Amino acid sequence: MAISIKPLTPHFGAELAGVDISNHITNIQFGEIREAFDEYSVLVLPDQPLTDEQQIIFSQRFGILESTRALNPGSGTPFARQSNLDIKTGETIPLSDRRMFYQKANMLWHSDSTFKSVPSLCSVLSAREIPPVGGATEFASTRVLYGRLSENEQNKFADLVIEHDFVYSRGIVGFTLSEDEAAKFPAAHHDLVRKNKNNGRRSLMIGAHAKTVVGWSEDQGRTFLENLVLRATAPNLIYRHEWRENDVVIWDNQAILHRATPYDTTNHRRLMQRTTISSSMPTN
Ligand code: OGA
Ligand code: MN
Hints:
The protein is of the alpha+beta class. It has helices spanning 27-40, 52-59, 98-103, 142-148, 151-157, 166-172, 179-183, 218-232; strands at 4-7, 14-17, 42-45, 79-83, 120-129, 137-141, 161-164, 188-191, 193-195, 202-204, 210-213, 239-241, 248-252, 256-260, 271-278. A seven-stranded mixed β-sheet has the order 1-2-3-13-5-15-4, with helices on one face. A three-stranded antiparallel β-sheet has the order 12-6-14. A three-stranded antiparallel β-sheet has the order 8-7-11. A hairpin with a 6-residue loop joins strand 9 (193-195) and strand 10. Bound molecules: N-oxalylglycine and manganese (II) ion. N-oxalylglycine is lined by residues 82, 106, 112, 123, 125, 137, 258, 260, 272, 274. Manganese (II) ion binds at residues 106, 110, 112, 258.
């Protein structure tokens, strides 16, 4: 039976049913998922309880997994852990703890891993434990934004290169890295305009890690980039995902911005496991 696809907004996003991704999926099934991914940019798959092992096997169908870097509790594993639960004890982490502070940057509109020289193709996020209220994730599409640019803007943007910097994006929320930590995150340069290899659709690589436009003054670059994020994330263009336990959501880091929203981290538990698939090639 073919996988069913239900669009979530008029612009992007779709919910998929009729496939169990915890088990081996056929090449035909993966082909349908991959095609839907290129078309809709955000895929929601409800009711997919996954173990870590199953999540890795499924994620590897998309490509090579990134290994999580320093600072995230999942460091050194294929998982980025988005959680208020201590990885060792399972207890909630106090608000004042550096680990909670670090997660604040997730509330800025961003695409994952744009600060790496080889950026990410997509992320797979599995909802293991969710709070009863709050903790939704919001999504916006820079492919949709690209389609709304004037021809003049499209022409001008074609030549722009953006500097992405993890140290910069953490700095926005006041999180500072030690010199040793910062040394692990050199800045990366990427073309502003990204083209999907399978369908040729263009999008913009922007978001919290995008620090400035190469060759422009930092102020000018920042104003330009902030304005693009504002346009991409206009309220009528976003998709807000209210999580149910065992939802799996896949998003295209080449076309999608996303951000976390608040929840009561003192009284409620949230555990999301993310695998991140590399695009395996530098962008310029
Ligand atoms: C992520 C992320 C947002 C959230 O996993 O990359 O930004 O709501 N998550 O947990
Ligand atoms: Mn993210």
